[in-house]
């Protein structure tokens, strides 16, 4: 502990009060110590409280049983008559003493440390009861001094029927400062960043000015970090940043919760003894499924991912591939389907490996994390643009029209089907389908084997529809026969690819600013030049074809390397300002802002989104910018917080993890004046938003004339 190092660095010669016959009081240069009793006499078989009162000079302090980042607690060594037993020190609620980055727990001005003492059934009544104590402490300001005194108190022994008189009133004052029993059950759970979330029920008090948890053991939490609290309907929730040695599974979290009344100081705090059980995350809060359930949810989510808007551009590749396969034998078509599935599964396996590597490096990661890199975004934009050029007929690599992926095939088309699967996986990752949220959130916090199993289940779900079509001859008969019309369809389907490229350039502008747009457009110009050079030289001699290939290769390399080098580490600083964004007015999310709004009893709607998440953009356009929803937010005073995960943001990653989510979108509604947060589905309509918000607040949703018609 830091306190040990601090003590080792102290002067060896501490001040010590020396008396020939110890008395009830002794003084050092910094502390006056007095030994007190709760009664003026003792009786056999009864208990008495002995207290050591420390009066500390201004600006200095002594320490609690857990001193915090440095320091050492006060110790009392008792020498009592035979048969007398002393209990542990009963520590008053401490306060915080902060010096720079160091936060200590202790006492300033005055404190009385109580010790219960149990007397035997018989005591000699011809001599007084004498209690002696050696009291040692560390007293600090900017420097620390170890000090020690010898104290003794003598009390007469009364008969069993006699009643002793009152003791020192400082004992009663010390009893009032002891932590009270908790008013209700306490529990805690771990959050995604390793911190703890403490809950205490049954508080029947006004809203405090501050709340602070003092753990009994050092290392359970980070003493110096901010503790954010909220109080709703008698339930206090406190966010505790992670320490070096948090409680292990099955261990309780013990300590003192101090609530300071509005306008009060730390010495006016009311303390509660906390012994919190480790709680399981409720399912309504994003509880994490078991591995088999997570795999099932991922599989279903993968199937539904085929219907998400972000996968639409690759549907053109799938459609052309299926049309091209109608002329193949069933066995060959079946193998091409498995090649496509292998491409999807290989891509998801690589994505899982990347997640594992980043997690090992201590980074907060989640679904779609690669789109948080401007370099990755611009490279995918180039890929979408090149796919569009190929579909438009600017260049053709190979004679097959069974899809752009198949144009990569040098033999048999299997390589092309494989790369079609890779491309499908790449463009699918900006979306989150139903069932995926809990599965991905669970997977990214699990061991390697479970993470791989969940991601491969997701990939298998994505590949399943195409795999069934390629393996089931009856389904293949439903497809139209190949013909000249395919070339026109092929050219038409280029435009979704151009649209995807435009969207990715917009994402890039959100990430790296407007200056990044010319970089992306220049790269696209070079890719178009490469396609044109390659195409016009195909009919020439070998030297002309080689020159065209080299020129095209140099143009592509310049686009790729130039874009990567120009955008590496280029991110635009997020702006923390209010905005309407075409809908309800919102403010940027922060944990402090959310806690402040909840403390004030304000209902809050939290939207976790990203510019590269098409599902998020569709939800905002369809539901959150709906005029009735906007009017409802304004009329009912619902604060709207938006967290933008377009660029990597550890605070948003922590928030997602608290609800068991590994990616966006995430929509959470916090009702006014208490109640548990309500998690909305990942696909929204105006009615879904109203149905989740109003019942949670105990209000019937108003009729929607647009939907009722």
Your description of this structure?
With 709 residues, the chain is α+β, with helices and mostly antiparallel strands. It folds into four domains: 2-176, Thiol:disulfide interchange protein DsbD, N-terminal domain (Immunoglobulin-like); 181-279, Immunoglobulin-like (Sandwich); 291-567, no CATH class; 587-708, Glutaredoxin (3-Layer(aba) Sandwich). It is built from 20 helices and 24 strands. Strands 12, 13, 14, 15, 16, 17, 18 and 19 form an eight-stranded mixed β-sheet that branches. A five-stranded antiparallel β-sheet has the order 1-2-3-9-6. The chain has a five-stranded mixed β-sheet with strand order 20-22-21-23-24, sandwiched between helices. A hairpin with a 3-residue loop joins strand 10 and strand 11 (144-155). Helix 13 runs antiparallel to helix 14 (542-567). It starts with a helix and ends with a helix. Mean pLDDT is 78; it is low at 1-19, 280-287, 398-412, 573-578 and 697-709.
């Amino acid at each position: 502990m830091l306190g040990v190092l601090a003590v080792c660095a102290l002067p060896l010669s501490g001040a010590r009060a020396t008396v020939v016959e110890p008395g009830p009081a002794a003084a050092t240069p910094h502390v006056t110590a007095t030994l007190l009793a709760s009664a003026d006499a003792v009786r056999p078989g009864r208990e008495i409280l002995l207290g050591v009162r420390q009066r500390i000079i201004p600006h200095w302090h002594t320490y609690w049983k857990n001193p915090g980042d440095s320091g050492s607690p006060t110790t009392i060594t008792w020498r009592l008559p035979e048969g007398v037993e002393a209990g542990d020190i009963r520590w008053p609620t401490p306060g915080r003493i902060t010096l720079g980055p160091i936060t200590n727990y202790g006492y300033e001005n005055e404190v009385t440390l109580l010790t219960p003492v149990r007397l035997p059934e018989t005591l000699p009544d011809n001599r007084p009861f004498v209690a002696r104590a050696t009291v040692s402490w560390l007293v600090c300001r900017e420097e620390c001094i170890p000090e020690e005194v010898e104290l003794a108190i003598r009390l007469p022994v009364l008969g069993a029927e006699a009643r002793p008189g009152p003791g020192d009133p400082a004992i009663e004052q010390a009893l009032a400062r002891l932590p009270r029993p908790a008013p209700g059950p306490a529990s805690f759970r771990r959050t995604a960043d390793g911190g703890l979330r403490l809950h205490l029920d049954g508080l029947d008090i006004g809203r405090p000015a501050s709340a602070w948890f003092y753990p009994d053991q050092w290392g359970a939490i980070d003493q110096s970090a901010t503790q954010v609290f909220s109080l709703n309907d008698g339930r206090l929730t406190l966010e505790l940043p992670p320490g070096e040695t948090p409680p292990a599974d099955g261990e309780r979290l013990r300590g003192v919760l101090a609530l300071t009344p509005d306008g009060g100081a730390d010495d006016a705090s009311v303390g509660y003894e906390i012994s919190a059980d480790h709680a399981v995350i409720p399912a309504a809060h994003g509880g994490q499924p078991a591995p088999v359930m997570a795999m099932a949810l991922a599989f279903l989510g993968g199937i539904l991912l085929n219907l998400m808007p972000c996968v639409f551009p690759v549907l053109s590749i799938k459609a052309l591939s299926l049309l091209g396969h109608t002329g193949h034998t069933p066995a060959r078509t079946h193998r091409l389907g498995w090649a496509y599935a292998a491409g999807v599964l290989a891509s998801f396996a690589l994505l899982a490996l990347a997640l594992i590597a980043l997690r090992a490096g201590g980074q907060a990661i989640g679904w779609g994390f690669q789109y948080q890199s401007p370099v990755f975004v611009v490279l995918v934009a180039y890929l979408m643009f090149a796919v569009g050029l190929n579909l438009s007929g600017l260049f053709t690599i190979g004679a097959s029209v069974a899809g752009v992926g198949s144009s990569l095939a040098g033999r048999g088309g299997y390589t092309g089907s494989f790369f079609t699967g890779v491309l499908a996986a790449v463009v699918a990752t900006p979306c989150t389908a139903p069932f995926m949220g809990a599965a991905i959130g669970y997977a990214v916090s699990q061991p390697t084997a479970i993470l791989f199993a969940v991601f491969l289940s997701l990939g298998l779900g994505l590949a399943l529809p195409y795999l069934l079509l390629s393996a089931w001859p009856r389904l293949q008969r439903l497809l139209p026969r190949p013909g000249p019309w395919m070339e026109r369809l092929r050219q038409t389907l280029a435009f979704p690819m151009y649209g995807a490229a435009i969207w990715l350039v917009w994402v890039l502008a959100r990430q790296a600013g407007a200056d990044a747009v010319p970089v992306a457009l220049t790269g696209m110009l070079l890719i178009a030049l490469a396609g044109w050079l390659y195409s016009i030289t195909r009919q020439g001699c070998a030297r002309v074809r080689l020159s065209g290939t080299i020129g095209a290769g140099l143009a592509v390399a310049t686009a790729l390397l130039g874009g990567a080098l120009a955008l590496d580490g280029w991110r635009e600083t997020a702006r923390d300002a209010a905005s309407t964004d075409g809908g309800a007015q919102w403010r940027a999310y922060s944990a402090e802002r959310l806690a402040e709004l909840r403390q004030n009893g304000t209902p809050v709607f939290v939207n976790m989104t990203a510019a590269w998440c098409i599902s998020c953009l569709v939800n905002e356009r369809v539901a959150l910018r709906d005029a009735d929803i906007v009017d409802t937010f304004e009329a009912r005073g619902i604060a709207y917080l938006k967290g933008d995960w377009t660029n990597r943001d550890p605070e948003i990653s922590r928030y997602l993890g608290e609800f068991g989510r590994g990616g966006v979108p995430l929509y959470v509604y916090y009702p006014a004046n208490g109640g548990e947060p309500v998690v909305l589905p990942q696909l929204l309509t105006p009615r879904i938003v109203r149905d989740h918000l109003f019942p949670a607040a105990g209000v019937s949703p108003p009729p929607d004339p647009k939907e009722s018609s």
